[in-house]
Specification:
It contains 6 helices and 15 strands. The protein is an alpha/beta fold and 282 residues long. It has one domain: L-arginine/glycine Amidinotransferase, Chain A. The strands form 5 sheets. The protein has a 3-stranded mixed beta sheet with strand order 2-1-15, with helices on one face. The longest helix has 17 residues, at 33-49. The protein starts with 6 loop residues before the first strand and ends with a strand.
Length: 282
């Protein structure tokens, strides 16, 4: 049985389309809807093969990113802090809240910008939380208070323009990064083991993570950025992950993990992957 991520919430891909909310998403590269639906089904099947219980809700109508349920909130230790999403995703918020309430979750509205589980990853008594791009740094103290935990606040590297200046996303008006959500640069494999891409973090964050007394597996910048390697779901025994990250896959299997690698081309066009399509309800 899974020791982590034993129950996940998923929606659907029926309304998936691309708006340029992050560096991966291009208006000229729209997903094939039928393929996207099949890919999401294959991800759900992989979860269930790993022993995970999947709760399915309908996709929020006409919400292009409603498939990415990880951004609906953080559900942990009996409390669910809802997200505060970018402008073109705000229509998801009431639907996400109602869906979580229907599942019996006690919900808390965030006082600042917050990207939910996409940017907040529990690992034992630690809570890794991103900042600057989709989550306001002031959320760190708020989450520490709500969950009575040690928050490890970190920051990933920015996307840079041709003049090596940080990019401001033209749609959201927020700073941008290929690691705009933390789950693109770090993943939790068990309560005392993470995978992370050191090159995806700024120097202070690298030092902070390196100093933690937990086991770590390093992921290359190539596999993290180009293959969504860190955007995975682990049960503590089985890892559902990218099929385009052979080096990382070999490291996991050398540690005794089983791996399942669904083939994904369409879901990633919106800048999300396996972890993004699932919200842990443990």
């Amino acid at each position: 049985m899974p020791t982590i991520n034993s129950k996940l919430l998923m929606s659907g891909a029926e309304y998936l389309s691309v708006v340029e909310l992050n560096p991966y998403s291009k208006l000229t590269n729209q997903p094939d809807k039928e393929l996207a639906i099949n890919e999401l089904n294959s991800v759900r099947d992989a979860f269930e093969r790993a022993g995970i219980e999947v709760i399915k809700v309908a996709a929020p109508k006409n919400c292009q990113d409603g498939i990415y349920t990880a951004n609906w909130g953080l559900s942990w230790r009996g409390k669910t802090v809802l997200s505060s999403l970018p402008n073109l995703r705000r229509a998801e918020e009431p639907y996400a809240e109602q869906s979580l309430k229907t599942l019996g979750k006690d919900v808390i509205h965030p006082p600042f910008r917050f990207s939910g589980q996409g940017d907040a990853l529990p690992c034992g008594d630690y809570l890794f939380v991103g900042s600057h791009y989709r989550t306001d740094p002031r959320m760190h103290d708020f989450l520490a208070s709500v969950y009575d935990c040690q928050v490890i606040g970190v920051r990933t590297i920015p996307d840079l323009d041709d003049n090596s200046q940080p990019v401001i996303n033209s749609v959201t008006g927020w700073p941008d990064s290929y690691f705009y959500d933390l789950d693109l640069a770090l993943s939790v494999l068990s309560p005392n083991l993470i995978a992370w891409c050191p090159e995806a973090f700024d120097a202070p964050s690298q030092d902070k993570i390196s100093a933690l007394d937990i086991d770590k597996i390093e992921v290359s910048i190539h596999e993290a950025r180009d293959a969504f390697a860190c955007n995975l779901v682990s049960t503590g025994e089985t890892v559902i992950m990218s099929d385009r990250a052979p080096d990382f896959k070999a490291k996991l299997e050398s540690r005794g993990f089983k791996t399942i690698t669904p083939h994904i081309t369409e879901l990633s066009k919106g800048g999300g992957y396996i972890r993004c399509c699932s919200l842990t309800l443990d």
